[in-house]
Amino acid sequence: MDSNPDGKLILVVDDEFDVLSAYTMLFEFRGFRVRTAANGAEALAAAQRERPDIVVSDYMMPVMNGADLCVAWRADPALAAIPFILTSAGILPRDLLPPYDLFFRKPVSFDTLLAAIHQLIARPD
């Protein structure tokens, strides 16, 4: 599972430019196409322009955080079935139960994240 011959599209959402740059480079090296957004509102707009195969989003961001993005994502019939991975360097509030598929605490190893992505995009719709 080291490559992605189908060129699946990953939407990476994070307000830290270095994170976006690193993930873009690593995912593209593995054969994925990558789009990025700096907050949840930008991510929703990007997904309207080009529907991704999966989204990897940070939790703590300005404008619209990752939890609010996930709720809006699931409420949109065109996006609801797309797998959603939420990440955070902080601790999520105990009552935060948005309908994300997986959660990883940062820092998460790229190999762990990549394996989860392959698992989620390979599952039947």
From TrEMBL:
Response regulatory domain spans which residues?
Answer: 9-121
Superkingdom of origin organism: Bacteria
Query: What InterPro entries does this protein map onto?
Result: Bact_response_regulator, CheY-like_superfamily, Sig_transdc_resp-reg_receiver
Q: In its keyword annotation, does this UniProt entry include Phosphoprotein?
A: yes
Carrying 4-aspartylphosphate, the residues are D58
The record, for Pfam families, names: Response_reg
**Keywords, A to Z?**
Phosphoprotein
Q: What is this protein called?
A: Response regulator
Organism of derivation: Duganella dendranthematis
